[in-house]
Amino acid sequence: NGTYRGQKTLEVELKDLQYCDSAVNGNLQLIDRRNHKNRFSYLQEILKKDSSDTVVFAATRARLEKIKACLHVEPPVYFLTTGSVSSFSDIPERCSKLFLFDLPLHEGLLEPVLRNNDPYQPITVHLLYGLEDQERNSLLIDLSFPSTQLLVVIYSLLVEAAGRGNATVFPGQVKEQLKIKPGKNFWHRCKGIFTEIGLLEGDQLAPDWVAQNDSWQNRLISSPVFCNSQELRKRCMKFQELLLYETPTEIARHLNNLPFL
């Protein structure tokens, strides 16, 4: 991300700067307003003064659209969200302000902003998320990376359907029976895991499904897809813990030195 050399001290457009923490690392200044009582008012206050070269991160498309509907500034700001596949071309070459309105699920979501940013151009990162974001992100992790507990539930539902003589095509009726509603990437991972440990053949339960017992859970560690999913779960949780509980100095250091591939 480069080093901030000989530039003027970064100016922060906040009325109450004295009441919040800040930190600087290289060209990145971080403003800590975690657990702010009114994130939207804070965002509006600053963008009314200057909305140029601004990116706002929101956790979901629904929250993003809600912010867009209420935020009327010129020039318009750019948005990132968990569900978006953002290319570098979506983000302005010069980004001077990044608002983490919500808690990012993983550091890769910030790559289009922090990696694409001019290493000698100051950027200010505002932390607006709070502890309540953790519950939503925990659900988002489950919707992305299947846990052992969810795999057990899903396979049990498949076996129950087969036992009743119903079709055993994966995922079949399980999609409707599951309390949470994951996307296609989740089901793709589940299918890969079950195939790798011999529970599925194509889209069907393996012929010996009747003889299977709970011992299949011990084979999960032999599935590359499962191991990769668990590693990604851990990385997400570790990154969120950093953003929630670490000091502004440590967060600024981490964000300015992300190991983007």
For the record, give the distance between the C-alpha atoms at the N and C termini, rounded to a whole number.
13 Å
The arrangement of helices and strands along the chain is: EEHEHEEHEHHHHEEHH
List low-pLDDT spans.
Answer: 1-19
Cross-sheet strand order for the largest sheet: 1-2-6-5-3-4
Helical run tally: 9
| Shape type | elongated
* Helix proportion: 25-40%
Rg result: 22 Å
Characterize the largest beta sheet: strand count, sense, and whether it forms a barrel. 6 strands, mixed
Please tell me the overall pLDDT.
83
β-strand percent reads 5-15%
User: Based on helices, strands and strand pairing, what is the structural class?
Assistant: alpha/beta
Instruction: Count every beta strand, where a strand is a DSSP E run of 2 or more residues.
Output: 8
Described by its quaternary structure, the protein is single chain
What are the SSEs and their pairings?
Layout: E1 21-25, E2 28-32, H1 39-49, E3 54-58, H2 61-70, E4 78-81, E5 97-100, H3 111-114, E6 123-127, H4 133-144, H5 148-163, H6 174-177, H7 184-196, E7 200-201, E8 204-205, H8 224-245, H9 248-255
Parallel strand pairs: 2-6, 3-4, 3-5, 5-6
Antiparallel strand pairs: 1-2, 7-8
Helix pairs in contact: 4-8, 7-8
Description:
A six-stranded mixed beta sheet has the order 1-2-6-5-3-4. A two-stranded antiparallel sheet has the order 7-8. Helix 7 (184-196) crosses helix 8 (224-245). The protein is of the alpha/beta class. A hairpin with a 2-residue loop joins strand 7 and strand 8. The longest helix is centred in the C-terminal third of the chain and has 22 residues, at 224-245. The protein is built from nine helices and eight strands. The model is unreliable at 1-19 (pLDDT under 50). It is elongated and about 65 Å long.
